[in-house]
Design a protein that fits this description.
The complex is a heterotetramer, with two copies of chain A (327 residues) and two copies of chain B (336 residues).
Chain A: H1 6-32, H2 47-55, E1 61-65, H3 69-75, H4 79-86, E2 110-114, H5 120-134, E3 140-145, H6 152-164, E4 168-174, E5 177-178, E6 181-182, H7 192-197, E7 202-207, H8 211-226, E8 232-237, H9 255-263, H10 266-276, H11 282-305
Parallel strand pairs in A: 1-2, 1-3, 3-4, 4-8, 7-8
Antiparallel strand pairs in A: 5-6
Chain B: H1 3-12, E1 15-17, H2 18-32, E2 36-40, H3 57-61, E3 66-68, H4 73-85, E4 89-96, H5 100-111, H6 114-117, E5 127-132, H7 147-151, E6 157-159, H8 164-176, E7 181-186, H9 187-190, E8 193-195, E9 209-212, E10 217-221, H10 225-238, E11 243-247, E12 250-252, H11 256-266, E13 269-276, H12 281-292, E14 302-306, H13 315-321, H14 325-335
Helix pairs in contact in B: 2-8, 4-5, 10-14, 11-12
Classes of the chains: A alpha/beta (327), B alpha/beta (336).
The structure holds thiamine diphosphate (2 copies) and magnesium ion (MG) (2 copies).
């Protein structure tokens, strides 16, 4: 395990900043009516993929969910194409045919974004299996929520990955809620890490809001997978700082808990840490933030100025060679 | 109620959304029978279901009878089946119809078959309520109209109302029906308003409703395509084409007689639905009409379902994917 | 917990004997061509339901699988109707329309027999929920194999039962094989009891081939459920003493292990125990065995002499009131 | 191969079972391409698959490439999808088609849609092999012919061979096809024998095969109904009725042109299948034929699918549930 350098910490923080800035910009657009899309907040969960991304290679694979904009950004999906897809434009990763819940970009290793809770895990096991069979040394990371641990597919996938010892890292982003339901209201399990450890794979809980802790855990899991040491289940403790999706309420959330989580939200918290513990200058951070701001704005402009997909696209990409009609 | 009675009642009836109407049906059923209960994701207050179908009901009847579940559709449907086997009347909510794919084993291999497999010793009086996407840019995994899968599974009753009034009466019937019923609630209709009679009433399953009378062309449809069809018919009226719009309301049982009677008169039939056209529900209807009225029709039976593809996200494409009023009107014109 | 009386032990053993005798008689019929049916051996697993049955009431519910003849007998499904169903006769529990994989007999509380691995568990949770809601004090027992723990439905059901604390007992009959695959070849979990304990319910492994151990464990679990103490997961250790189904091979089974299991098979083993430890006389056992033999023969005769279902039955029982046609 | 070539070849070809033919196709594909691998329950030796489709292959190619799985159909199909997304060619086995119900989310929401949802950036070149029950007293949960669910799910190719020769050539094509293919292997056919050319050959998807030529009636069918149809046609020949038996072989793509060409000639069509008749695959075919040949047919298009009910266990009932030669022959007589 290598110690986290300041450079690495800064790269991670820059990714987090990109994620946060993008989210803020989208929310602004949604509020003003400039943009329309279904949007699932990732606010509060930025550190998880940012730290993981630092330890992945471009050719490694990632799978994520509807709440996956942060994962896409961290894996290196070009911001222009990502935002264009979310806006349903022909320049998007899926030519606007997938939408925010279905971003795929094999060029950057972002293989699948699924809207079905738990649906991504079995697929990730298959991606990792391909690496095991080919001996290509790639690692697959699959992201999912805490609520996804209740669904059958998740269990089947973890059991299979443990059995086959394929190079996959299960990243459970435990933001304490599945839609409007609290963790304790959908399971009596005390800890997900504990539950999944019993499948015979490495499993641990980690502070998902700390660059330092997340980076260490991610590096350990990825290194283990890459070196043939088998899969890991990471329960990354975090907190969803808003409603389930844009426009949905938070009335069911404990306001005190939410306030505490907000006070410790990862971007500000890790910024403080970089300054206080890592001696990073405010000027460095300010400049980075300004750069990111400009990048995001330019990417969004690209997305907004792009054309929607033409009508012919309705029928393409159903099958490899045939017209869309099955006959 | 007959269509005429409904039309009369409509004047005085209070107006509410389809979601409210669903809520009322559940409320009345729960009030009436303590063996009725609800289970599903996020159905308890304060949310009361992401589409508000159970809003207020956990507060009124308690969290025992309106109970949240984990994200576990197999367990949701299975638990409903289990309780129903001993006579309870569970109402399970599957948030979106696309997620039936996760629970198809419980739906198709258990709910649909247990009466038959037990030689009638058990039955499965469950209702599964589910929202049906489409038309809202929810993308390929949140927009499917899967009534065709259900129709092809003997033992399931399949219901898809197009108005608040129908929703309340049909859902009420489903809840007290002795067989498994799938109640499909279209997202584009859930928050549209319409007159809904107060209190308890039931609309029988298997009875189509003529939503608009006409003489030239029979337009058969259901669910969120009904308002599209009606809008097309309205436009066509001004062009001198008289369209009869039949809302099937239930796909199983299928009121094919209503279709045949109208078609005998008009001799021209168009079937419109949001489900995929290829091998979709309209194929059965077209096959039967073509068979029963062989030699009597003026034109071949036409179908307009959704395009053979997953559902695209971009609004520009999604509009082309599903039938909509302009293209429906064109199809009727070609027939008339 | 009450101590196991000799009377109770004898009742359990009588049930085991009925199960074994029925199986032997069926196998004889299948071998001679007298009978034809798909048959899943329960040889070696007799003690589990026999002990459970001792602690259940008639009105309690049970759910089982294709490999469920022993469970049906122990729950009190009339042997005549059970065998008639297996033979596809109109006098069967399902009028011959269900077959050996789909025995239902609400009169004796045997609610569902499913042929889909894992399919019964969610249904059992619903049966138990009905008891919780009605306060009727009934307990639901659901039987399934070790292999069924790999499938999603099982996990969803156990999690839900733990969450809701409904009166259900999960009886995993761990016969070490799922069809042709050994336990260690489909999971890296060390113990199923350990795995399922993490869902927040009582879970333990028990010697499923010992009347004494099984009876104690069953009583504890059933009493706990009945008194509102919540569900239990019992991993009943046993061994499948033959191929997956009648006619299938055993070449993949370890012959030494199989021989050891055969030497300790539960009917002979518990018979020895009754004589040696419980002072039950050989004459008592011999007489009981003869009675059972006669009963089984008479039930099979009933089944064989019954008529197949008439053609009208094709269309009934699809719906409550309509003809079979959906229109 | 054309039917004629096939007929010529048949004389010399070695004879084997459909299961052996499946095995040969997999063997050749694995030999040819190291990216082909198999996964499923009990597919390794010594069992080699409960229907022997992979017998000997784990021994030949190793347990890495022919690998047993836990009883986890969602994980089986999902893992196949994942590996295929990066170009491998997995062959997943789902022991019986009824268990697709457990895996429908992976099949319908993922395999079928990922090409479209990614705008073509990814594709899912998997093959799912599955046995189809029916006719063997396996009961309601082990006998379903669910091609209708698959047809209604845009993005899936659906294949059901009726002879060993077709099975080998079609499965080989599926394995190297760039889209998800469902290869349905009927239990009643798996151990029937027929000539199978040695070595590598491919039969294209979407090309029906005329299994028997005839002039009076067009009989459209596939899978284990083909031998039933041929037996009926044989009987009818002696009565002076000439029946053309078209084996569709693949339902998606659907070779409707072959059906239409024959129907134009005979002007009488009967569609026969083991899937439920109501809203089943035959409805699409009947609807299209009735539409395209409107006014040109002598008789309405007839369908004979299985009865609208779960599948009964008792042999006496199961025989009545599915179409079989005697009732098929009667239906043809009524048409002729
Ligand atoms: C199978 C399935 N059931 C239900 C839903 C609806 N749904 C969308 S997100 C969500 C909550 C998921 O919670 P969690 O896994 O914790 O992820 P988070 O949203 O918190 O990131 C639900 C229930 C779905 N998409 N898929
Ligand atoms: C969902 C599903 N997948 C596969 C099968 C085929 N199958 C029947 S029994 C069986 C093995 C089950 O093993 P286990 O749960 O240990 O039960 P046992 O047969 O040992 O009692 C399998 C794979 C099935 N019936 N259902
Ligand atoms: Mg969450
Ligand atoms: Mg077992």
């Amino acid at each position: 395990m290598t110690a986290l350098t300041n450079d690495a910490a800064l790269r991670i923080f820059r990714t987090m900043t990109t994620i946060r800035t993008t989210e803020n910009r989208i929310i602004r657009g949604l509020n003003s009516g400039e943009l329309t899309m279904t949007f699932y907040t990732v606010r509060g969960q930025e550190a998880i993929p940012a730290a993981i991304g630092e330890h992945l290679r471009r050719e490694d694979y990632m799978v994520t969910t509807y709440r996956g904009m942060h994962d896409c950004i961290a894996k290196g999906v070009p911001l222009e194409e990502l935002l264009a897809e979310m806006c349903g434009k022909s320049t998007g990763t899926s030519k606007g045919k997938g939408g925010p819940m279905h971003v795929s970009d094999p060029h950057s290793g972002l293989m699948v974004t699924t809207g079905v809770v738990g649906g991504g895990l079995p697929i990730a096991v298959g991606l990792a299996l391909s690496s095991a069979l080919r001996g290509d040394g790639r690692v697959t990371v699959v992201n999912f929520g805490d609520g996804a641990t209740s669904i059958g597919a998740t269990h089947e996938a973890v059991n299979l990955a443990a059995l086959w010892q394929v190079p996959v890292v299960f990243v459970c982003q435990n933001n304490r809620y599945g839609e409007h339901t609290k963790f304790a209201d959908y399971t009596r399990s005390a800890s997900l890490a504990e539950r999944f450890a019993t499948y015979g794979l490495s499993a641990r809980a980690v502070d998902g809001n700390s660059i330092e802790a997340m980076s260490e855990a991610a590096e350990a899991a990825i290194t283990q997978a890459r070196s043939g040491g088998g899969p890991t289940f990471l329960e990354c403790m975090t907190y969803r700082l808003g409603g389930h999706s844009f426009g949905s309420t938070t009335e069911y959330m404990d306001p005190d808990e939410l306030a505490r989580a907000e006070a410790e939200e990862p971007v500000a918290r890790n910024r403080r840490w970089l300054v206080a513990e890592r001696g990073i200058g405010e000027d460095v951070l300010n400049q980075m933030e300004a750069e990111v701001e400009a990048q995001v704005e330019s990417a969004l402009t690209f997305a907004k100025n792009s054309d929607p997909p033409p009508p012919e696209e309705l029928h393409t990409d159903v099958f490899s060679t045939m017209a869309a009609s099955p006959r | 109620m007959t269509p005429q009675q409904q039309a009369n009642a409509a004047v005085a009836d209070p107006v509410c959304t389809l979601s409210d109407a669903v809520n009322q049906a559940i409320d009345i059923a729960m009030e009436e029978d303590s063996e009725v209960f609800c289970l599903g994701e996020d159905i308890e207050d304060p949310i009361g279901g992401v589409m508000k179908g159970t809003k207020g009901l956990s507060t009124k009847y308690g969290r025992d009878r309106v109970r949240n579940t984990p994200i576990s559709e197999q367990a949701i449907v299975g638990a409903a089946i289990g309780a129903s086997l001993v006579g309870m009347r569970p109402i399970a909510e599957v948030m979106l119809m696309d997620f039936f794919a996760v629970a198809m084993d419980q739906v198709a291999n258990h709910a649909a078959k247990l009466r038959y497999m037990s030689g009638g010793r058990t039955n499965v009086p469950i209702t599964i309520r589910t929202s049906v996407g489409g038309g809202r840019q929810f993308g390929a995994q949140h927009s499917q109209s899967l009534e065709g899968w259900m129709m092809q599974t003997p033992g399931l009753k399949v219901v898809m109302p197009s108005t608040p009034r129908d929703a309340k009466g049909l859902l009420y019937t489903c809840i007290f029906d002795d067989d498994p019923c799938i109640h499909m609630e279209a997202l584009t209709l859930l928050f549209t308003r319409g007159p809904v009679p107060a209190g308890r009433y039931a609309i029988p399953l298997g009875v189509a409703d003529v939503k608009r009378s006409g003489d030239d062309v029979t337009l058969v449809t259901w669910g969120w395509q009904v308002p599209e069809a009606l809008a097309a018919a309205e436009q066509l009226e001004s062009e001198g084409i008289s369209t009869e719009v039949i809302d099937l309301r239930t796909l199983v049982p299928l009121d094919i007689d209503a279709v045949l009677q109208s078609a005998e008169r008009t001799k021209r039939v168009l079937i419109v639905h949001a489900a995929t056209q290829f091998a979709g529900p309209g194929a059965e209807i077209a096959a039967v009409v073509s068979h029963e009225l062989f030699g009597e029709l003026e034109k071949p039976v036409e179908r307009m379902g959704s395009v053979y593809s997953p559902i695209p996200y971009a609004a520009e494409l999604e509009t082309l994917h599903y039938p909509e009023r302009l293209r429906i009107a064109e199809a009727v014109r070609r027939l008339a």
